[in-house]
Amino acid sequence: MGAEPRECVPEQPARRERGRRLLWVPLAGLTALVLGGAVLRLAGRTGPADVVWAVATVAALVPAAGAMLRDLWRRRFGVDVIAVLALVGALVVREYLAGAVIAVMLATGRALEAYAQQRATRDLRALLAHAPRTARRRGPDGGIEVVPLDEVGVGDRLVVGPGDVVPVDGRVDEPVTLDESVVTGESRLVRRAAGEQVASGVVNAGAGFGMRATRDAAASTYAGIVRLAEEATARKAPMVRLADRYAAAFVPFTLVLAGLGWLLSGEFIRAVAVLVVATPCPLLLATPIAIVSGLSRTARRGVLVRDGASLEMLGRARTLLVDKTGTLTAGRPRAAETVAAPGGDRDEVLRLAASVEQLSPHVLARALVRQARDRGLSLAEPTDVTEEPGRGVRGLVDGRTVRVGQLDGELPDWAGRVRSRADLAGRSVVWVGGDAGPIGAVLLEDPVRPDARRTVRRLREAGLRRIVMVTGDRPDTADQVARTVGVDDVLARCSPAEKVTRVRAEADRAVTVMVGDGVNDAPALAEAHVGVAMGATGATASADVADAVLTVDRLDRLADAVEIARYARRIAVQSATVGMGLAVLAMLVAAVGRLPPVAGAFLQEGIDVLVILNALRALTGGLRHRDVPPRTRELLTEYADQHGGVRDVLVGLRDVADLLATRPEDPACLPALRESHRRLTQAVLPHEAGEEQRLYPALADPLGSAEATSTMSRAHVEVRRLVDRIGAHLAQAGDGPVRPDQRTDLLATLYGLAAVLGLHLIQEEEDYFSLNPTDGR
Question: Which domains does the chain have, with CATH numbers?
Answer without folding.
Answer: 5-122+240-295+565-619 (no CATH), 127-231 (2.70.150.10), 334-445 (3.40.1110.10), 630-771 (1.20.120.520)
